[in-house]
Amino acid sequence: MSVSYTEINEILSRWAANDPPIEDFTVENVLSTLNISNDRYEDVLRFLMNKEGFELVPLKMLLCPENHKGKTFHLNDPINEEEIYDCWCGEEDYYNPDNVVLVFNFTDDFKSDALKKKMNIRRPMKVG
Fold first, then answer.
1. b/e per residue, 64-96, with b = 16+ CB within 10 A?
2. How confident is the model over 76-95, as pLDDT tens digits?
3. Cα Rg of the chain (Å, integer)
4. This protein's superkingdom (predicted)?
5. Which one of 37, 43, 50, 78 is most buried, counting C-beta atoms within 10 A?
């Protein structure tokens, strides 16, 4: 199955316009939502990474051993183990480099633009 970048852009706009916006989503979330095969992971990853700073903010997220979402760090920043707090499930000091996942959030500008676009679509056009 080919990748429809238009569909990816549409889903990103919908997610950014949610109240609250979808955050900490993964390439797998995009693939699953659009029913795209996992063998297109690299293509979608490159597409999303090209939006860095304009629409998306790539982050690395720590997962506790129970796979609960933890603290996020900017992609190029080192993980400061002193900033890691215990997970709500009771796991303590759970940093493990193997439990880091790439996630994306939206830039403030993109969220604002997506919300404006959503509001304009809902608002009926005035005639005359």
1. beeeeebebbeeeeeeeeeebeebeeeeeebee
2. 888 877 777 777 787 776 67
3. 17
4. Bacteria
5. 43
